[in-house]
Each structure stands twice: as C-alpha cells, then as structure tokens.
Amino acid sequence: MDVFVYGKRQPLPGGFDEFIAVDGTAIVSIDLHQGHLADTPDCPCPAPRAREVVDGVNRFHAAARRLNVPVIHVKSVVRADGSDDIRGIKSAWRYVFPLFVGPIPNSDAHALEGSRWTQFVTQVDARDHVVDTKKRLSAFYPTDLDFLLRNLGIRRVVLNGCMTDCCILNAAFDASNLGYRVTVARDLVRGTNAEMEDAALKMISLHIGLVAESDDLIAEWGRQRQEQTAGAPALRQVAARG
Amino acid sequence: MDVFVYGKRQPLPGGFDEFIAVDGTAIVSIDLHQGHLADTPDCPCPAPRAREVVDGVNRFHAAARRLNVPVIHVKSVVRADGSDDIRGIKSAWRYVFPLFVGPIPNSDAHALEGSRWTQFVTQVDARDHVVDTKKRLSAFYPTDLDFLLRNLGIRRVVLNGCMTDCCILNAAFDASNLGYRVTVARDLVRGTNAEMEDAALKMISLHIGLVAESDDLIAEWGRQRQEQTAGAPALRQVAARG
Amino acid sequence: MDVFVYGKRQPLPGGFDEFIAVDGTAIVSIDLHQGHLADTPDCPCPAPRAREVVDGVNRFHAAARRLNVPVIHVKSVVRADGSDDIRGIKSAWRYVFPLFVGPIPNSDAHALEGSRWTQFVTQVDARDHVVDTKKRLSAFYPTDLDFLLRNLGIRRVVLNGCMTDCCILNAAFDASNLGYRVTVARDLVRGTNAEMEDAALKMISLHIGLVAESDDLIAEWGRQRQEQTAGAPALRQVAARG
Amino acid sequence: MDVFVYGKRQPLPGGFDEFIAVDGTAIVSIDLHQGHLADTPDCPCPAPRAREVVDGVNRFHAAARRLNVPVIHVKSVVRADGSDDIRGIKSAWRYVFPLFVGPIPNSDAHALEGSRWTQFVTQVDARDHVVDTKKRLSAFYPTDLDFLLRNLGIRRVVLNGCMTDCCILNAAFDASNLGYRVTVARDLVRGTNAEMEDAALKMISLHIGLVAESDDLIAEWGRQRQEQTAGAPALRQVAARG
Fold first, then answer.
1. What is the pLDDT of residues C1-33, one digit of tens each?
2. Distances in Å between the alpha carbon of C107 and those of C44, C170, D5?
3. Rounded to an integer, what distance in angstroms lies between the CA atom of residue D168 and that of residue B125?
4. Which of A218, B46, D6, D181 could form a Cys-Cys staple with D156, CB 3.0–4.6 A?
5. Are the Cβ atoms of B203 and A137 closer than 8 angstroms?
6. Which string of b and e fits A203-238 if b means at least 16 CB within 10 Å?
7. CA distance linking residue C140 with residue D63, whole number of Å
8. Residue D189 near residue D162, CB atoms below 8 Å
9. In Å, how far is D218's CA from the nearest CA of chain B?
10. To 5 degrees, how large is the angle CA B193–CA B199–CA B202?
C-alpha cells in the first residue's frame, strides 16, 4: 500500500500493521455539515473546498460498511442560547479567522443546536454512530468520542472531513496521544486553502500517522477480509493484540 | 501591538484584551531539553533548529518574571522501563518520522526518566513551575498542566519551545479547546524545517490564537504593569473577568 | 448557616466563603428522569426514594433562578443501538446491582436515546442548561459538564438528585477534584436506602464539601444578594477571586 | 470465588469473567505512604487504620508478581511551593475534615514534593510502576494512570490502600467510568473508621464492582494460571476479548 510522506507518494514498508489492520479500525468523519458546506450567503462558517469531498466520503463510507468497518460522524453543536460559545468563552476562531478572511456575516449561528447548520450533508446510515457534542476544534474534548471508541473496541482511526488544517489535524493529534493509530484519507479532507491542506498532511505524516488515498485503504482492508475468509490469520492476530 | 496573520505582520485591532492582558497570563515553555537540543550524535530526538531559541527564551522568561508573569516548563519524561512508550503503545513519531528522516540512532532513549535527555537546557528559576509528565505530543494529556493552570488562576498562555509543527501546535490546540487564550511567541519556537514552522504559525493565526514577537509581548505587558501602578484600571478589569 | 458534619447539624464557621458565595455558583441536578423515577413495573433502573425530592427540587430551582443562580440538569443517555453500554463495555451496575436487588426486568432499556426513560421529571426552564451525555455514574466523564461550567464562569456547585450513594457522590468527587467547591443539598438527594444515603452524606462532609439544607442555601444566597443590592461588597470580592 | 455483596459473603455466580480474569489485570495500590501512615505527631494527614494493611499488601503484591500481575503504586505529590494545593485551589479536605477531627497540626506539609511524606511504606519492586502525580482524591485525575493502564493493555484493576471512603472509592468510580472492571481487596483497604469502611465497600458492591478477600483473588488467579499452563483456554479467551 502507498502512503504520502511529506507529500511524496511511496510504498509503506513493513511494520505498520497496527495502523492498517482492518479489525479494530473505525472511520471518524468530521464536521461535514451544513454549517461548513452550505453554498448560501448565510453559511455561518464556510469551508467551501470541503464540498468537493462529499461524494467521495459517501462512497468511502459505503465501501467501509461492506467491510464491517464502523463509521462515526462527528459534528459541532453548541447550546442554542450561546452559553458555551458566543456568550461563554467564545471560540478562538471567532476572534482570529476574521483577521484573515474579513467579517463572517452569520458566524454567530454556527453550530447552534436545533438549527439547520448542524445537519449532516453526508449520508448517515442506521449502523453508523454519531457524536454531536463537538464544541471547539477537537473531536475528542469535550465529546464522548474516546468513550465511544473504547466501547467499540477500536484501536485505529481513519479521518476524513474538514478542515484539514484545524479540526482534522487536531483530531489526529488527540487520537494519537490517546493511543489510537491514525490514518488520514488524503483525498477526503479539505482545509482553508491548498497551502494549508498540504502543510497539515505533511505534519501528520511526520509526527502522527499515515496519509493515504481512500481507495488504497479500501483495497487493503478488502484484501485482509479476503485473507480472513480464506483462513489466513496473520493480520487478525495483530488486530487482537494491536 | 503587532501580530502575524497568515505570516503577515499587522497591527492587532481592538477586542483582543482577553489574549494580551498580563494578569492571568502564564508562559508555557515546551521541551527545551537535552533530548531535543543536545548537539551530540546520540541525541535521541534531535530538533537542532530549536537550539537557536535558547538564549531568547531565557531572556524572555527573565523579563516575564520581572513582570510577575509565571513561567511553566514542560518536558517529556517516560518511564525508564519503557512501559508507557517503546514497550507500550509506542509513540507514533517513532513509526513515521523515520520514513522522512531515516533511522534515528538513539531514539529508544528519548525522554527516559532519570536520563540526561530529560534535563532542561533553558534556565529554570526557583519561582518557575515544572510539568514533567509529558508523554506524547500534547503538553496537556496526560499531564497535570491544565490542573496547574487552574490552580494558578491562569486564563491566557504564551507558548515557546519546540517543535512548532508538532508539540507547540498540539499545545495551542489543547489550550484553546480548554478555554485558554493562546499566543505563540513566533521568534521563540522552532520546528522540523522552515516550511513547517511557517505553516504551523499560519494555522495558529487562522484558527487558534495570536502569533507575536516576544519583545512585543514584553513591551505590551510592561505597559500594562505601568498603567496598573499608575492606577489606570482598564485592563485589570478585563483580566478579572476574562 | 448550618451544615451537617458526619450527620450532625452545626453552624458553619468562618472561612467557607469559597463554598457559599452566591456569585459563581451553579446548581447541578442529576438524573431526575423517568428511567429512575417512573412508578411503573418497566422502570428500567428504579430509584423510588428519589420521587420524594421532585417537588422540593422544583421549588429549590425556582428560588435559585430568582436569585440568578443557574440550574444545570444532567441526565443519562446512551446510544439507542446499545453500542456504548449493553453492547459495548456494559455499565458495571448491570453486573453488580442485581446481586443485591435481584433481576431488574427492563434494565436494558435504561437511558436509551429517544426513549421516555430519558425524560426529565423535574421542570426544565428555558434559562436552564442541559447536559445529556452522562453515560455511567459520573456527571463529568464523558460529558461536557466541566466545559459548560468553565464557559459559565462557575466555581461552586450545589448538587441534588439521585442516587446519593453513586451518581451524586461520584459527581461530588469529580467536581472537587476539578477545583469546584461542592455543596450537597441534603434534603434533595436520595439513594439506595437510608443507610447508604446517610453514609454518602457523611463521606461528602468528611472529604469533599458541605452538606446543607436547601432552604438554608436559598436563605444564605438571598442574604448575599440583598447585601449586594445594598452595596456591601464583601462576598462579591470573594466570588471574583474564589 | 466468594465476594461480599452489601457486606454479606456469598459465592460469585457465573458471568463475571471480565472482572476476575487474571490476564489484563493490574493491582493499583493507593497512597500507602508516610504522609498517611507515619506514627508520629507530625504526620500531615493521618490514616492510622491503614497501618494494619501494610504487611498484607506487601504479601499480596509479592504473590501477584509471581503470577505476572503488574503492581502500580499511586501516591500523592504536590508541588513544594504549594502552587497546586495550599497556595492554589486548596484541597477540599483541608476545609472540611477538620470540622470533624479538629485541627490537623502539620497538614500543610501533606504530599509536598521532596518531603518524607511522599515516601512509600510498602515495598516497591523494580518491576512495579509508580504514578506520583496524584493531587487530590482521585488516582486518575490529573495523573497519567489511565494512560499507563492503556499502555499496559490493562482491562481490570484491583484496588488496595487508603482511604476506603475517599481515595479508594474515588478510584473505583473513576476506573469503572473509564471502562475498567474493578475489584476492591476488602482486607487491604482502610478508611476513616469502621462505619465508613463498611459503607464504602457496600457502595462499591452495589454500583461499581466486586469486593473480595485478597487471598481469594490470589487463589483464583493461581487457578487460572495453572489452567493456562495446562492448556485450558477458557478464561484466556475472555481476557483477550474482555
């Protein structure tokens, strides 16, 4: 299987079974909701580049479900009265992002509980899991994502969604610090701009985990499932241990 | 005061008192120890670019102490028997960083409790605080840094140390998610290379907090302390609230 | 104001302003929902003694709102598919509580998302806050309660609800460890039986915080609010510091 | 194997393999240090009843090591300058415990880093692990105990030490909420007095986990090890899954 090391495609050497074993793996899809993706002027926190990945994410998730890889959708939801964001300790991006992009007209509506801005754009299957208490950039704090992963017996996560240079990168740091093996699906994440996307993936490849194409992950997992069916036990044992 | 937004120096507009108020601010200096900075072939996790900031960090800390801004030194220490790293869930960088830089000869010795690799290179004053249970990329998990900051009544942190594109960036994410206002001292952090340093600072300026020169921070804090002495109460009140 | 020390009523001496200052205080009401309180044979996790406190809790909350003390309602909700409880790492009480009380007929339905068992029995006002990701005995892990309290600027919590000897006691431990000052409203908590209620309150009074009557808390807070109106600043300053 | 349910000894029925499987089990021994156990007038936080368990704990640990069950010693250590306790957010017990026991002469010295009050009274073997950042009643927050347990692959913990009605009980709550299966070694814990010890063990048996004699645990684990040697795989499989 190929991975991208500092932006350069190359074959993954041996010794990475803890990262790529299909058993114990879950997909964590981050913030692919209307609040980032809506193509309307009132979109409260636009991440327009991420619209490009929606179809690919849906296909990736469908393929993963067929291989019995669970899919977890994480989304930002803050209390409707603003008590844990704009009327509390206001999210830092509300201060600093406008210094770069200028005023964001409807940003106060971002992630408000009960609003359309919390609706997923990607397909959520009945078998999937949802974490809907993301409040800031992290998918882990103060959510129950780590708790859910423990309950599911997950040891490895594959990330997709937006934005590469903030919430994806933050989730990659957190997951890795907590002991999960991390892979980022390079073609299924988008960020502020091409420069930041490229840099975030480079950082991940240097310090945190693997960066790979989603098709290559599906192919690798499919191969493992076939071996399991055929009785070859090699990677299964890794999964049980890893 | 000037800050750097996506790499561009510009004056900080109003509305950022929560970030720059001197009261309630602490400096968090990350991993400026022999394990990264030693200029010997057995340095277990070399971050040679960070050697450049040691003198500047010492001066910054000295000036901060004179302004009654507490200094917290964080360092990586893992158990000497390897149980929480190389013989446990091995740090992810041990897998992926060598894909970029090649084998790291003495990396197994990194951060081992009791070894010289855990000795600070920067000066630690009797008034300073030390957090010595950093285990992975985060300065917050699984350490007591947040607990210490709560006990000190801290609301704002200024980060320096290494490496910009992993542990500094990770600490910036964590601190911000926990509700602390974050500033990174641009001249006092170093990373993997110039490209990654530049990109990490851009990400911080977009999503997390302020990026500023250490001299400008000292000047701003000094100005506030003088105003306080003169009895002008403006920023004091912010500090009490913020 | 009187408190109960190891079950014995006595006047609270000086030096406890950090615990009783009305500013910075929030009420945390735990698990007063149908899943514990329903008086039907299919109640999945019966805590029948707690039915006695519902009216008192409602009165306490109403009085607190008039004094601008925020009310936070915490409830247990687990995923409807059982993935984070009965089909995951099953809650420990499911194993051990039946050793004492015998089989609990409908216990698998406890706290299932979307079921009536997650409906509050107590009144939830539009100004109140709800934390609905309690999964186990703790009100803090893996919920966003601490995050919410930070955002609200809360330093002191007053607990009511059920059960005294598990979730109330657990919340008291957690809140105290996190640096909040804890008071338990003695008349507004109920547990497994009188012996366990009495013992849990004794433990709290020994190690964690204050045990007091709800009426005495309201009276104390009302007195402070009157003093504030009258301009007496004493406890206000404590609240700002504490 | 027998357990104690609400204080009554009875045989443990089937279905508790997740609790008693020897593989994946660690012993967590809490706060058996001079600060609690010293029999001198300057003992800063006396827990005299716990002196009774020291010999038994040493024997239990020795037997456990022979069965390859890891032993983790947790102790309270706060910064020597008081910044994270008496000069920070002072531990709650410092306020409330004296209401019951009267003034505690040398309590300010409790757990001070570098002092004799942080020395273990029990034997610490070279194979054991030490967690020395306990700051309040919890053995988990803000320490790295959960991180260590994850790295060791631990799923079950057996608690001993002091005090039953505060730090042991708190650790039992935390461990259970985090998904670990909990057993308390009934004969190897001591608390404030007999009433509180009895009540805490009852609470644990109702809501959290098993209460058992240490000799019975050693016998059960020994039996399992013998079966493993003999090739009987039953509980091994549980351990791998559980």
1. 999 999 999 999 999 999 999 999 999 999 999
2. 4, 21, 20
3. 36
4. D181
5. no
6. bbbbbbbbbbbbebbbebbeebbeebeeeeeebbeb
7. 36
8. yes
9. 24
10. 140
